[in-house]
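[stage:ingest] chain + small molecule (zinc ion)
[stage:ingest] validated
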Amino acid sequence: MSSENRIHLDQHAASSIDAYFEYRNIVGDDDNGTLFTPEEYEAYKKKVIPQRMQNRLYVSWTNSEGMDCKLIGPETPCFCKHRYKQHKTDFELPVSSASSLKCKVAGCLCSGYNYIPKNGSQALKCHCKHSALEHSAVSPNACHSRKCSCNGFQTSYRCGCGDLAAAHKLLVETRQQRLERGHPVAKFEPPYAAMGGLTGLSSLIDGYMRLDESGVGCPTKEFLESASTSQNERQMSVSTSYQSRSKQAITKKLSKTKQMQ
Ligand SMILES: [Zn+2]
Ligand SMILES: [Zn+2]
Ligand SMILES: [Zn+2]
Ligand SMILES: [Zn+2]
Ligand SMILES: [Zn+2]
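[stage:predict] done
[stage:export] tokens:
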């Protein structure tokens, strides 16, 4: 009898934890540190999730050949030292420039999400010999260090792909733009906040080591010219069926969370 009770409690605890993680992944920091009431949570989901599933932005740091050397994820730091998920990533209409991805942390002067690679766990050094951390978050990232006349962060760091860091750019794309570039998208769009460029577990690995198509670089000429439309259509139809399936799953999940409250 008592063991039955315990099992019941464990299951309850587990589903409470699931519900909490689900809440965190969906809401991120949008509740400003105070949990939404069930009503506020429902209203938030109704407003934000459909928008997110339609306008999710894929953010990648790409080299001169179009390889996604780094797919930006929720935890990937910005030059302003805050993480991607602390920046504005929900939009009613998709945006195409990283300068729209403003940092939401009060007082941060970040001029839009800006990825700067690290050298292992070390922040990169600028040509002025000071660390990236000593530079302003406002573009063009002048050095704060005393008596330093550096007026913009510059590094000679070479990425694993062989290109200099400076030869890379941060791409902000819609699902469609990414498909047109021949790069992988999520099988279905998750309802979660700030997914950036993540499409799976291997997304966190550097581009030149990643095993999916995001490390392929520029699509072949054949892909762009000949069968490209039919391939896009095929990919789109696959993803559409995934999306309708995922919507069903999410509706189920949402009604489940409702029952729990
Ligand atoms: Zn920032
Ligand atoms: Zn910031
Ligand atoms: Zn500098
Ligand atoms: Zn300096
Ligand atoms: Zn690279």
